[in-house]
Write a structure and sequence with these properties.
54% helix; 7-stranded mixed β-sheet; 11 strands
Length: 616
């Protein structure tokens, strides 16, 4: 059976040595984030994840969520774990105090989210999606929803979902067929089918609040083939009385089936059928198109803002899942590598009294483990930095600081979702490889990590879509302000530390990687306008380059911090020395990949687009 140890000390290093959150009195919610406070939160969360959630991960996968006689049941132990999760307040860590939450900043919330997903991703998705749903509802909902619905979701008494995808419509929302017809009382009757709905139904709570997107038909009952009439709706599984908040009759929402999935089998991923379900529009009512033939239709309605906010938060959360699955898989791979004996070290027997050495002596095993750990810890650092940026973007006192933070949050979100989940899956694969044939069978639980990790690259916008979003929107917005700000920020760090002999290997590699990334960005700026296919052809490689350089930047900062603590005789020397080795690994073996990626990115689209479709 696999194990999991939450990385409390690593989070403490990031919080208080690298990011120094204890000194950020300028940001709301940071005043009380002393080392004693954050350690108490992290250790409490770690204990719950290790002792309650992790033991249910493998059994939950084997049992799976079940749909029988119109009822969805979660695996054994999940409801009890969910009740304990809510009773202990882990679902309310980031919720506002006025709603009964602890009002912790994003940096603390995402740290706990990583631990929960590493321990049991299928479970963590239930409260994770609920948090995203109630956060959107708290912004866009009517007063009665904020009074009677949001508090029940915050407390965990009710759960929530995101209902976007349809059988014929994934990323291209213009193809959506789900419709919402306005009624005399201002509600809507919503009809259609949504698929791949995580937490779509289950027996853990009395009600589930579905956050649904649908089109509002025109006066002739027709649906526009664009986003102009797409709106955001709240559709409860069970009706809620507006005056009292009491539950009433069952709404017109039913489960068609549970998806038969590759992984996260304990997560009740449902096909949901909406049959004239009562729905409540969130946000402004869409304006009809002008009859003037020269008036271009709007690309989307204002009501979509809440949906995009929820979706962007979910994309960050999925990136965290990439770190989490990479970490738990790595941990088990490292344990096995120290226990399993096979062969002898190339430099001579390390355990001559035994018949073989542990496989940790072999360079290739170490290559796989170091690749995984250097990604996990570098990605964790970047995620925590971006989490602080989210708070700064909203609440920093200086306008320029808010602007920079907002740019970094926007720029890094598709990178975190796309690159992190790619590398998280790769880490799970590499850790399974450490086990050899024993990783391929179910006994050790490694194959589950690989299966579970694979969905992270797909949902909340497949990674190719994230790459397109990066090069087509995030890098070009406001004249390319965000990438230029990032490039300048990294360059400033390099320049400020150029005389530090200890950092020279990391800074030389980071400088080269940054130059490759800048060259690729310039190539895109020159060639994408000539042929937009060039942007699409280069996008994935550019996203990967961004990820490599961003983690290189974090590793250089962590190396500087670790060396300073060692020189001062502070902290755990073994912990800090390991940081330095991992930083060198990233500089020597990951950052050089930007050179080949630059060549790939600048190859253009001609070869990719040359073959006729029939020749594939």
């Amino acid at each position: 059976m696999p194990t999991y140890k939450a990385p409390v000390e690593d989070f403490m290093f990031l919080f208080h040595d690298l990011l120094k959150i204890q000194d950020r009195d300028d940001l709301p919610g940071f005043t009380d984030l002393t080392e004693d406070m954050t350690r108490a939160i992290l250790e409490g969360g770690a204990k719950f994840c290790e002792e309650v959630l992790q033991p249910l991960n493998q059994s939950g996968d084997e049992e799976g969520a079940v749909f029988e006689n119109g009822v969805v049941r979660v695996p054994k132990g999940f409801k009890e774990a969910y009740d304990a999760y809510c009773e202990n307040g882990w679902n309310r860590l980031g919720a506002p105090e006025e709603l009964g939450g602890a009002n912790m900043p994003a940096v603390v919330n995402f740290a706990f989210a990583e631990m929960g997903n590493a321990a049991n991703q299928a479970f963590a998705m239930y409260p994770g999606l609920t948090s995203a749903a109630y956060s959107a509802l708290a912004v866009t909902g009517d007063d009665w929803m904020k009074e009677h619905v949001v508090p029940k979701m915050v407390s965990g008494e009710w759960c929530g979902t995101m209902c976007l995808t349809e059988p014929h419509c994934g990323t291209d929302l213009k193809l959506m067929k789900t419709k919402a017809v306005e009624q005399e009382d201002g509600t809507y009757k919503l009809s259609g089918t949504k698929i791949f709905i995580s937490g779509g139904d289950h027996d853990m709570t009395d009600n589930i609040v579905h956050m649904v997107i649908a089109k509002i038909p025109d006066e002739d009952g027709k649906l526009a083939n664009d986003l102009s009439t797409v709106n955001f709706f709240m559709v409860p599984k069970v009706m809620v009385d507006k005056e009292t908040g009491e539950l009433g009759a069952r709404n017109g929402v039913s489960v068609g089936s549970i998806e038969k999935k590759m992984g996260i089998k304990a997560q009740a991923t449902c096909v949901l059928n909406f049959d004239e379900a009562t729905a409540y529009r969130l946000g402004p009512k869409p304006q009809p198109k002008s009859a003037d033939a020269g008036d271009k239709p709007k690309s989307k309605s204002q009501g979509m803002a809440g949906m995009f906010g929820m979706m962007n938060a979910a994309r960050m959360g999925v990136g965290i899942q990439g770190i989490a699955i990479g970490d738990v898989a790595y941990q088990n791979g490292a344990i096995y590598a120290n226990e399993r004996t096979a062969g002898r070290a190339l430099s001579g027997a390390k355990n001559p009294e035994d018949s073989a050495d542990p496989i940790i002596v072999h360079p290739d095993v170490r290559r796989m483990l170091l690749a995984s750990r250097s990604f996990v810890e570098g990605a964790r650092a970047l995620a925590m930095w971006v989490s602080v940026m989210f708070t700064e973007a909203r609440a920093a006192k200086d306008e320029k600081q808010r602007e920079f933070a907002a740019d970094m949050g926007q720029l890094m979100t598709p990178i975190i979702k796309g690159y992190f989940t790619d590398k998280g899956f790769e880490a799970a694969n590499q850790s399974m490889q450490v086990f050899g044939g024993h990783g391929y069978v179910k006994d050790h639980g490694m194959e589950q990590f690989v299966r579970d990790a694979r969905i992270n690259q797909v949902y909340e916008g497949a990674n190719g879509v994230q790459a397109l979003d990066l090069v087509g929107r995030k890098m070009t917005a406001k004249g390319g302000r965000a990438p230029m700000a990032f490039f300048a920020h990294v360059q400033a760090f390099i320049d400020a530390n150029k005389d530090d002999a200890n950092l020279k290997p990391q800074l030389d590699a980071l400088q080269a990687g940054l130059k490759d990334l800048q060259d690729a960005a310039i190539w895109l700026a020159e060639n994408a306008p000539k042929d937009f296919e060039n942007a699409g052809a280069a996008s994935y490689d550019v996203m990967t380059m961004f990820g490599i350089v961003a983690l290189g930047f974090m590793w250089a900062q962590m190396a500087k911090t670790a060396q300073a603590k060692l020189d001062a005789g502070e902290g755990d020397p073994e912990f800090l020395k390991r940081k330095l080795v991992l930083a060198r690994y990233w500089a020597e073996r990951e950052l050089p990949m930007t050179a080949s990626l630059k060549v790939r990115a600048s190859a253009g689209a001609s070869t990719l687009m040359e073959l006729d479709a029939a020749n594939f």
